[in-house]
Design a protein that fits this description.
3 domains, elongated, Rossmann fold, five-stranded parallel beta sheet, Double Stranded RNA Binding Domain
């Protein structure tokens, strides 16, 4: 996992595979340039809105310097391998749609619930299966998990200040993680039940925050 906000990324290819990868990059706040003679209608719309820079025409190695990540997603594996070869030594991270082993980084399918991120990878060999597993996991982990992480993050900062002993602090943080907060938040969206459970645990551990 890499924080991508403001990070320059080059995507080679303007088809539907590139579109899916670019959609995730834009959500992460990356600065994306796409190099391709043509784009899907959705990518053209991103270009018109200024969310995406388009370098029209075929790939040229001069486009590589200055990028942290290059994603190679043309429909020709031979072209993909050649782009990856040219990128070696110039770009730290290289992701290749086909064949995936030509790159040095994989981009997993990810389920996000606020700050919670669950990633699924098949080593790049079956993105469709990774997406199917993601859909199955999505039914198990709802938005309440993101809200639980928010509560735990809020508590962690206060507990770090209030409990200097590392072992005692770890026991309390573990108890909070096991407190079934997602279920309480799902059953009571007002957070009253979850916060009551947290207060009870703080009292049990003799901590005032």
């Amino acid at each position: 996992m890499v924080r991508m906000e403001g990070v320059p990324v080059l995507v080679v290819g303007g088809g539907h595979v590139a579109e899916r990868k670019i959609r995730a990059l834009l959500r992460s706040g990356a600065r994306v340039t796409v190099a391709s003679p043509s784009l899907t209608p959705a990518l053209e719309a991103h270009v018109r809105k200024g969310a995406l820079r388009h370098q029209a025409g075929p790939f040229h190695p001069d486009l590589l310097p200055g990028h942290f990540l290059v994603i190679v997603a043309t429909d020709d594996p031979a072209v993909n391998q050649e782009v990856a070869r040219r990128a070696g030594g110039l770009v730290p991270l290289i992701n290749v749609a086909d064949p995936p082993e030509a790159g040095n980084v994989l981009l997993p399918s990810a389920l996000t619930r606020g700050a919670l991120c669950i990633s699924i990878s098949t080593g790049g060999f079956s993105p469709a299966l990774a997406r199917q597993i993601r859909r199955e996991i999505a039914t198990r982990y709802g938005e309440e998990y993101g809200r639980a992480v928010d509560l735990l993050a809020e508590l962690r900062t206060r507990i770090l200040q209030a409990v200097p002993e590392a072992s005692r602090r770890q026991r309390l943080l573990q108890a909070l993680a096991e407190a079934d907060l997602p279920r309480l938040l799902r059953e009571d969206p007002t957070e009253a039940a979850a916060r009551a459970r947290i207060a009870a645990l703080l009292r049990q551990h003799r901590v005032s925050v």
